[in-house]
Amino acid sequence: MITCGIVGVTGYAGMELLKLISAHPRLQVTCVMSDSSAGLRLSDLYPWMETGALTLEPFKPEKLNQLDVLFLATPSGVSARYIEQLDAFEGVVVDLSGDLRLTGEVYATWYGKAPVHADTQAKAVYGLTEWNRESVRTARWISNPGCYATAVSLGLLPFLTDGLIEPDEVIVSACSGITGAGKALSTKTHHARSNENVQLYKIHTHQHIPEIEQTIHQMTGVEATVSLSTHLLPINRGIMATMHVVPTIDQTETEWIDLLSRAYRQEPFIRVQQGEPEIRTAVGSNYCDLWVYKDDRTGRLTIVSVIDNMQKGAAGQAIQNVNVRFGFNEALGLSTQPQYI
Amino acid sequence: MITCGIVGVTGYAGMELLKLISAHPRLQVTCVMSDSSAGLRLSDLYPWMETGALTLEPFKPEKLNQLDVLFLATPSGVSARYIEQLDAFEGVVVDLSGDLRLTGEVYATWYGKAPVHADTQAKAVYGLTEWNRESVRTARWISNPGCYATAVSLGLLPFLTDGLIEPDEVIVSACSGITGAGKALSTKTHHARSNENVQLYKIHTHQHIPEIEQTIHQMTGVEATVSLSTHLLPINRGIMATMHVVPTIDQTETEWIDLLSRAYRQEPFIRVQQGEPEIRTAVGSNYCDLWVYKDDRTGRLTIVSVIDNMQKGAAGQAIQNVNVRFGFNEALGLSTQPQYI
Amino acid sequence: MITCGIVGVTGYAGMELLKLISAHPRLQVTCVMSDSSAGLRLSDLYPWMETGALTLEPFKPEKLNQLDVLFLATPSGVSARYIEQLDAFEGVVVDLSGDLRLTGEVYATWYGKAPVHADTQAKAVYGLTEWNRESVRTARWISNPGCYATAVSLGLLPFLTDGLIEPDEVIVSACSGITGAGKALSTKTHHARSNENVQLYKIHTHQHIPEIEQTIHQMTGVEATVSLSTHLLPINRGIMATMHVVPTIDQTETEWIDLLSRAYRQEPFIRVQQGEPEIRTAVGSNYCDLWVYKDDRTGRLTIVSVIDNMQKGAAGQAIQNVNVRFGFNEALGLSTQPQYI
Amino acid sequence: MITCGIVGVTGYAGMELLKLISAHPRLQVTCVMSDSSAGLRLSDLYPWMETGALTLEPFKPEKLNQLDVLFLATPSGVSARYIEQLDAFEGVVVDLSGDLRLTGEVYATWYGKAPVHADTQAKAVYGLTEWNRESVRTARWISNPGCYATAVSLGLLPFLTDGLIEPDEVIVSACSGITGAGKALSTKTHHARSNENVQLYKIHTHQHIPEIEQTIHQMTGVEATVSLSTHLLPINRGIMATMHVVPTIDQTETEWIDLLSRAYRQEPFIRVQQGEPEIRTAVGSNYCDLWVYKDDRTGRLTIVSVIDNMQKGAAGQAIQNVNVRFGFNEALGLSTQPQYI
To answer: How many other CB atoms are found less than 10 A from the CB of residue C319?
Structure first.
């Protein structure tokens, strides 16, 4: 068994990791950490889940020696603090915050916080599994992608790879369930405020914008400029990204669908769907579902991508990366069964 | 008192008209019609509302003679059928379906139904009050705008009037509450399906697309091409349109906000807001709330428009038009009090 | 105009008072207080509402002299603190917290806080309008009833008045929308937790239990023992109380309905309904809707009561009491138009 | 592999069976039937699920010969029609409708339909697994319990077994998610109506009332009279039953909790919980979670039971029964992982 530690187990990503790992035949959680809730028993934190007998401990690097994998399910800024103490740790680190995703100056600009050291950041491999699998296979540090960044990048990359769309006319309108805003209490996520509401937030300033542009550049060499608007919805889980792009070649809708299908033909977690998109086809699973439509009137394509922000957009992709890293079947222990209703 | 008849009083728009008119000091409903539910008492249809003693009657043109105003709150296609029988009616007709909005061929293309006669259509004045007030003042036939068309047009028109944005790069991502899909039972609106879901629909084929483009042309002379994606949300009421446009001049965000504020300075139902947009600021009222943001990185503007699809997007704007038509205070009887929580 | 002050205007009850008073032709808010948010302009707190130019001030008794009415829309415990400073205030005080509802020892037991002085408490009149109208008419201090207590008492009192049900076999299962839990941030009201959930709370310890029993005794002389279970629902507004009682006489269901109808025949805000109950018939209005059913198999009656917890259960009833107190039409400015859809 | 057929695979219970069986290592669906949708491919019906290559067939008894198990996931009345054609079928039948639950006259009274033949009904074993395991082990016909009946019976039976509560003072207030109302389109389940609403239905007439009373009698010998009120909630899944009972002996709350814990100590799917109940602890799993509280003031107990109406209340319990019937581990393939957030 691969032994795993989770730092930040009280948050949503930590909880989801716990659920996924408990269903995974080769992984086992042996250490759960939380500075704020140290001393609490895991079974008291999650009385509705089979959690075993672990107790939350404060983060201490010296306790990590036994672990094969350490998941940092901590907020950005907090991860950075722990990362600086992990030099001696010999296992695999998977960071689910954004603290290893961007290089120093870009990070500082978009997160408004101090970045980790440049050489620490450079050690991290970006864990967008489908596009960086070979690097993940040997990585010691894995920077798990952001939820919006995952949905958007998976939808755009096949089109940008061969220069099939204009890189400066990418308009993404995306929406996320409430868990995307995290577990911390806030006015925006008070039920009476968020219910029966749509809240647009971080307009032109969402930190996944540079992450998407950097990913596009890293994977395709293209310098793209992406407009992203993010809407908070009164649902618990799920991201839908509706992307409006301008093709550089003339093809039928069927040809575009074929192109997308071919790009992901081998992928266990990417499905090219037809019919009208809905967020539920992916929620509860590790799938990313994609659709593409051609507007014959305007010439534009509409690409739609949906994921479960807690699974493919966070804990699920983290496990997928661990599966790749340890040579397991990539789908091991992951859900291919959306909740749907 | 101005006497009003409502055809299609069992639908959502009919219900909302009934509610609004009951709060209006100068309007009175004296006749309610419904072919499907004729014979039913209004008080049995809406036991939770003060409705008076009316009984639903089948549509018969000869019964309409006493009416000052006839509201057609019937679905597209159904309105058309009734419209052909209204030649002798001397009062004001307000049609809330799309049957008087588009000229014949365009209508046939987008609605997939037979249009009304060209001269009937030509008699109708498009009731986007803020932009067509003078025509509404003397109209006998008023074609009430569509819900998405209202939200989008009110947001775009001030920018298109003076050629301040590129007319062919208008990308609108919009979402609507479930009432936008109507009262008819459907799989898409079964609670277990729509709840915790986002459903993208009528991709590149929504009938409000040509309505928006025609309105832009009618009000500004500009030939624009609009991309519109429409998402069905698990909320009851409200439309949010997030519009991505490319400005032709260089101005600060503050200057753009000022421009918008000046455009609507006199308008009782349009508010230019600041802060982060949410759909709730307008829901329950006849307001259209607008925001504009500049993305210094991409040069694009994001314009956001929210309305209550049942009020400003349907019954509220219909009453607003009647107020204009009869010379009342334009806000008479209309709500300026959003529900919010 | 009757000048009104609101203490605690940042909370839900304060916000609802503001909305209702702005629609009231004889009341005017001239002073808004909040210790936590003093200095904030009302228009910044509620940018979606027409609020005028008021600024929030800290609570100071000496500023209240100009006011005809002071609403305390503060939490229990906080109201008590302000009440002790209101000896010199000559206007009418309406307290929406529970701090004036119970006598000292009972208050201390159920609220776990220090009660107000016994003689202060004794000055307050219990504002269950329909049952205490004559006392409200001349009251200087009005203790506004709790939300559950309003729904339950209005349903039970007609049956207890003449000893028609067993006073010790009253089982009430009630549920409330999320606003009932207040605006303060809490785990229970984080959207991701409360959404798609039902949470049972304060089992056998809800502070409205003694309030209901005391009201029954005060209005009917009967010593009743009430079991109340309270469920938090993923909706914004509304209370439904489903009450199971044992009749002492044998009557048909129709006779029970008639009895209830007669009891409230003159009441502008109480409706005896038929058909299947739903919470929406009252939400958005000041109505209390009641139903009664007889189970011929068990002999029991099921009485159902629904209200909007923010209106009839809080701010609406407060205004109703002010209307009575100042001799206005009791329904003045209050909503008789449920939102419904 | 045990081969399974599902009749009524287009409904919610059929869909859930399909999901559960696809995760079950020993069961396999080899035949799916639906009279209304025959000819449709399963993969077109559920494009979001891994369904394999089956096509929906019309119900024909002669096609069933190869099957080990036939699930009837059809509505009441429809199941009855199929049941009459299953005399020759030699496999195990699991009926999820109510058509095998009640004897003829009682069925006719509560369902308002013609019952199946008395000897057919008599062959069926009531599949409340925890209380009828030995009979299920050898059953050919299994009548799967109703959702409310499951939640209520599991909560009450330990208390009735030894006469610890009054059998004629059992008051149950229960609520269900919208899937409980089925997939058929109806006004009550149109999102705009059910959302932000609570709807009380089938008052004193719910067909699970006689099922509960019959189960109590069958399992404990006690003749009980149960009052049940059922509320439809704006959530997708889950039942909470809040039960008010009168104990016949005097014990502390801790002793009552112990009693309940002992009763179910060996059960893999029943958990006695502490803290405040919520519906989410069970939703997404096959658990039934129970709580019990003592009200020292009234002497009453409050027993709370929550289940996922689609799992333990329908398809989950059906699989649990099949596991028992075929000698598998009772929990095989079933979920012990609630969705929670």
So the answer is: 30
Q: Model's pTM, two decimal places?
A: 0.97
pLDDT in tens, D4-14: 999 999 999 99
CATH class as words, domain D148-308: alpha beta
If interface means Cβ-Cβ distance under 8 Å, which residues of chain C face chain D? 168-169, 171, 173, 175, 192-193, 196-201, 203-204, 225, 227, 229, 231, 233-238, 240, 242, 244, 276-280, 283, 293-298, 300, 302, 304, 341
Q: CB neighbours (10 Å) of residue D109?
A: 13
Q: Do C190 and A192 touch (CB under 8 A)?
A: no
Instruction: Give CA D148 to chain center in angstroms.
Output: 7
CA distances from B9 to A133, B45, B215, C340 (A): 59, 9, 28, 15
What is the separation of C-alpha C102 from the centre of its chain, rounded to a whole number of angstroms?
Answer: 14
Secondary structure E strands in chain C = 2-7, 27-33, 69-72, 92-95, 124-126, 141-143, 170-176, 199-201, 226-232, 239-245, 270-272, 288-294, 301-307
Amino acid in position C13: A
- Provide the CATH topology of domain C2-126: Rossmann fold (3.40.50)
In which region does residue C63 sit, left (phi positive, over 0), alpha (psi from -120 to 50) or beta (all else)?
alpha
pLDDT at B153: 98
Determine which helix (DSSP H) or strand (DSSP E) holds B325, and give its type and residue range. Answer: helix B316-325
CA distance D11 to chain B (A): 12
Contact list, D247 vs chain C (CB under 8 Å): none
B222 contacts B162 by C-beta, under 8 angstroms: no
Mean pLDDT computed over D55-67: 93
Helix (H) or strand (E) holding A161: helix A147-161
Structure tokens at C198: 């039902």
For residue D45, the distance in angstroms to the closest alpha carbon of chain C comes to 25
For A60-64, B28-32, B97-101, which range has the lowest pLDDT when averaged over its residues?
A60-64
Q: How far is CA A17 from the centre of its chain?
A: 12
Q: Any idea of the CA torsion for D59, D61, D65, D70, to the nearest 10 degrees?
A: 60
A132: tokens are 């960086």
Domain residue ranges of chain C, discontinuous segments joined by +:
2-126, 148-309
State the smallest CA–CA distance between residue B210 and chain A in angstroms. Answer: 11
Amino acid at A275: G
Q: Do B148-309 and B2-126 have the same topology in CATH?
A: no
pLDDT at residue D52 in the model: 86
Interchain contact, B231 vs A175, CB within 8 Å: yes
Q: Which residues contact C29 (CB under 8 A, 6 or more apart)?
A: C4, C5, C6, C17, C18, C21, C22, C52, C54
Which of C9, C40, C46, C48 is the best mutation test for B, with the most CBs of B within 10 A? C48
d(CA C253, CA D139): 44
CATH code, residues D2-145+312-325: 3.40.50.720
What are A321's two structure tokens? Answer: 């990366």
pLDDT score for B52? 86
Q: Which of C12, C187, C236 sits opposite A196 (nearest CB)?
A: C236
User: Which residue of B lies nearest to A225 if distances are taken between CA atoms?
Assistant: B298
Kindly report the CA angle at B149 between B147 and B150, in degrees rounded to 5?
Answer: 65
Please say if A147 is a catalytic residue: yes
Q: What is the C-alpha to C-alpha distance for residues D38 and C204, in angstroms, rounded to an integer? A: 53
**Chain B partners (3+ C-beta pairs within 8 A):** A, C, D
Q: Of D4, D31, D147, D175, which is the active-site residue?
A: D147
How near does any CA of chain B get to the CA of A227, in Å? 7
The domain defined by C148-309 carries CATH number 3.30.360.10: yes
Decide if C282 and B49 are in contact by the 8 Å CB cutoff. no
d(CA C221, CA D216): 39
